[in-house]
Amino acid sequence: MLLGFLALGERASTAAPPADATPPATVVLDPGHGGSNGGTRGHGLNEKQVTLAIAHQVATRLRAQGIRVEMTRVADRTLTLRQRVVVADKIPADLFVSIHANASPTRTQRGFETFVLTPRAVDIDGRALRSDTLTTRPGVDPEIAHMLDDVERGSSQWEAADLAMRMQQALRDRRGTTGDRGVRQDSQHVLLGATMPAVLVEVGFLDHPVEGKELADPAVQGQLADAISSAIIDQLAD
Ligand SMILES: [Zn+2]
Hints:
Layout: H1 2-7, E1 26-31, E2 41-42, E3 45-46, H2 47-64, E4 68-71, H3 81-90, E5 95-102, E6 112-116, H4 121-130, H5 142-175, E7 180-184, E8 198-205, H6 211-215, H7 218-237
Parallel strand pairs: 1-4, 1-5, 5-8, 6-7
Antiparallel strand pairs: 2-3, 6-8
The structure holds zinc ion (ZN).
């Protein structure tokens, strides 16, 4: 593209889209685990396989609606939490949705829950982050960039809570109300450095004798993908 413009003797800036063009909404899908990190296990499946299968189906549904989708991984690949956040921050994304499957010590629990991911970077290790060379705002003074990040994190919490509630509603509609474990927030679910609204959905318990088998079923995976994508589409339309 660029070569074509140069050949025509045009300046690179003329290649910019018109000012009134709205860029497509961008969602980062994060299939939990991957590579050497298999996650939980049940019914001959690793969590990393289930999360990837569902994420691919969610991506297809979102793209069909004109939504831009980036995935933190598209294959069986080991990723650190940091690498997942970097994918989301560099775009930058409008929403970040991490997909997981659960397990319980007694193998008796079942149901779905959505965590609001708290980007408590400043509280936890502000100094370490401030010395981080990674920046989501190239060309902006680092101190100002961090301040803007803090402001964005505050408002993104509200949006994340909204999305989490929609996620639970969409899952209830398709999987029944008895499985609803609700919206949660805790210190275990932190997405360091992220500034966009971020949630983590646990679609069900892979080690449950009944639910685990269902999660391995492509038709149920499609049902879960329907729920997750419809919650995202509703959130972006608001
Ligand atoms: Zn997981």
